[in-house]
Amino acid sequence: MSAEQLYIDPEACIGCAACMWECPVGAIHDEFDLPAHLEDYKEINAEYFVDNPLEVRDPMRTARRQLPEQRPQLRVAVVGSGPSGCYAVDQLSSITGVEVTLIDMLPTPYGLARSGVAPDHLATKGIAKMFAKIIRRPNVRCLFNIHVGVDITMAELRETHHAVILATGADTDRKLGIDGEDLAGSHSAREFVSWYNGHPDHAGLEPDLSAERVVIIGNGNVALDAARLLVAEPDALRASDMADHAVAALSTSAVREVVVVARRGVADAAYSASEFAALCQLDGVDVVAHPDEIGEDLAADAVAQSFTGRRKLDLARTLPPPETRASTRRIVFRYGLTPESIGGENRVESVTFRRTGADDSVSETLATGLVLRAIGYRSSPMPEVPFDDIAGTIAHDGGRIVADAGDGMYCVGWAKRGPSGVIGTNQVCAAETTEKLLADFRDGKLPEPAHATSHVDDLLAERGTMVVRHDQWLSIDAAELKSGQEAQRPRVKLVSVDDLLGTLNARL
Ligand code: NAP
User: Contact at 8 Å (CB) between 113 and 25?
Assistant: First the structure.
């Protein structure tokens, strides 16, 4: 599921069109019915198959999953309700006899689908409609606003469930390890994205938007999201579900230029070609690049000649040069510049880069008031859970947590495989983990829990913890949608835990 192209086997396809109706984000179109902005894909698909001739395989068939007759009940706790957690819940709760407890630290579910996906990508956010159908199943119990390790211990979860799946994502950042990284005005893209998406932990970030230029280090899809939103028109921001505070700040910001800087060349760009192509078509924004940085691509030949490498090069070659000034807002793509230091007295004033490779004696300093480090997320270790410090993930074997955590502990998503892939990647990732869990259960490796799941509720009640259950989440959701309707916006997000819980108190 990391591919940018979807292949439907013409031998196996019976043309029922169910995929078109089922795809929660409306991403599948007939070739004869492509929206105008996707017309290019006819040619792109044709070109893809020149390099990758069709290899018709038998349609993949998976055996229907079921519990063994002699052990018809399985209880699993899933910690984290983002995409990977939701896919794991889906795969398990669709089996008769399985009960799932879905836990999230926030009063709101869906993790990065709520606080990571760009607010103007409303179609992608439509995935939440599919997750909503999963978490309302009768054999799924939602316990939101519960912090595992604080409100309930891992041991208590394990005493009440046959297995625990950690879908805790990546809650911190990779480090650049250069001078000035921690100056005021230097933020990780994760913090910035969480800020504009109204994540309660970052709603108070207040990035300084008073300088004309922002520099983004790294050119993955997160960098592209941030760049696009930094130069978006206020109307486009209001049409998104961006948090109100961010709409207000970005609508009045002084930012007119975002420079997206990659250490490698165009063919090696971390962004996906489709996201880059969409960005190049932005109305009212000059998207420019330096022709000499595209011509001298640093990528190894194999990469530059690969399908995606060629496509990224072809797209970049269509960009006008930096002198272009057709609009008042611009995004400048730079390639082959390695960050060396972030400068400034008490706060960010500039970033210095050195040319990557042969020309490393050449350096360049860009003046700026705000630096976003979009170099990737990272998971932090959890107590009692083995951690692979090099990979920056939980230590596991295909989703089964290894070492002294013992049987019955599993992981999915970014906590398992690092910060990579798109939402759908989590489906395959979760399937690998849930297969292992079910095999362990069938093989008798998961002992019967010492207590019923109601023991968790008793413990939380004893501790006076405010639990947000499924119907209460629905009330929060309804309150946000109602405020959105009143403000003629898709949704007005509540951005503090107090305000989220306040909607429930108001209802009582
Ligand atoms: P990413 O795709 O891994 O990109 C990280 C960027 O940081 C790369 O350009 C990388 O350069 C650069 N980098 C890393 N270490 C660096 C260093 N020390 N100095 C300079 N540059 C450095 O990460 P991301 O953008 O955070 O995205 C995470 C995942 O979410 C990706 O799989 C992405 O596709 C996905 N996502 C998808 C969408 C979408 O589909 N619309 C939106 C957002 C995110 P190198 O390539 O040279 O290592």
Answer: no
Tell me: the pLDDT tens digits for 90-140? 999 999 999 999 999 999 999 999 999 999 999 899 899 999 999 999 999
Average pLDDT score, the chain: 91
Confidence check: pLDDT of 406 > 70: no
Could you tell me if 319 and 333 are in contact, meaning their C-beta atoms sit under 8 angstroms apart?
yes
CA distance to 138, 406, 442, 501, per residue, from 66 (Å): 18, 24, 10, 38
User: Ligand 1: residues whose CB is within 6 Å?
Assistant: 174, 176, 217-223, 225, 262-264, 268, 270, 272, 275, 339, 374-377, 419-422
Cα–ligand 1 centroid distance for 423 (angstroms): 15
Q: Are 203 and 245 in contact (CB under 8 A)?
A: yes
Q: What is the pLDDT of residues 234-276, one digit of tens each?
A: 999 999 999 999 999 999 999 999 999 999 999 999 999 999 9
Q: Between the CA of residue 231 and those of 116, 242, 265, 323, what are the distances in Å?
A: 18, 14, 24, 18
Tokens at residue 50, please?
Answer: 């020149």
